[in-house]
Design brief:
Elements lengths: L34 E2 L5 E2 L1 H23 L3 H22 L9 H10 L6 H11 L22 H26 L1
Antiparallel strand pairs: 1-2
Helix pairs in contact: 1-2, 1-5, 2-3, 2-5, 3-4, 4-5
Length: 177
């Protein structure tokens, strides 16, 4: 991750099976290792999994809120699931993403060499619209957010979050080789 006020990456090391490790550092002496991509970019599987598991929790919450009829909250939680998933990918690459803009997270992934298909970029943009409006009454001209979201909205948002998480999982597996 990138430390506050510095451009220098701060690496997190995790214990693990050394069979998939292609590069070692001085931490090897302590029994610690980190895998790298073909381009020598370190992969932090533990950090990826930490963020990715929270994405699953957010998606499950979105599904529960949709089933309960709280469609605005389902849309927000679906956006959060996608955000956590994209951040899992970027944190796994050691890029330390910050912010809440899904299309920008997609751009950061592309800048890191991950192929982000146009369909996924469109999905990130569509889902990214659910970050503020589902939560704040002043995000709409009139009425609370709950009056502006329908079952169709939450169904689409959950489908979009699933698509983003499937993309994240596929990209991670490809990086791991």
């Amino acid at each position: 991750t990138i430390g506050p006020g510095t451009d220098r990456p701060q690496r997190r090391w995790s214990r693990g099976d050394r069979s998939d490790v292609t590069a070692m550092t001085a931490a090897e002496d302590d029994g610690l290792a980190m895998a790298t991509t073909g381009g020598n970019r370190p992969l932090d599987d533990e950090e990826f999994r930490r963020w990715r598991s929270e994405a699953d929790q957010a998606l499950a919450s979105a599904e529960r809120e949709a089933a309960a009829g709280a469609h605005n909250w389902a849309c927000f939680l679906a956006e959060q699931a996608a955000q956590l998933g994209m951040k899992a990918l970027l944190h796994g690459l050691g890029l330390g993403p910050w912010g809440h803009d899904l299309p920008l997270l997609g751009t950061r992934a592309a800048d890191a060499g991950i192929r982000v298909p146009d369909e996924i970029r469109d999905t990130l943009a569509r889902l990214g619209r659910h970050y503020i409006p589902p939560r704040y009454p002043d995000a709409h001209a009139a009425g609370p957010p709950s009056q502006h979201y329908t079952e169709a909205d939450s169904r689409q948002a959950v489908e979009d979050a699933r698509a983003i998480l499937a993309f994240v999982d596929g990209a991670w597996e490809e990086l791991r080789g």
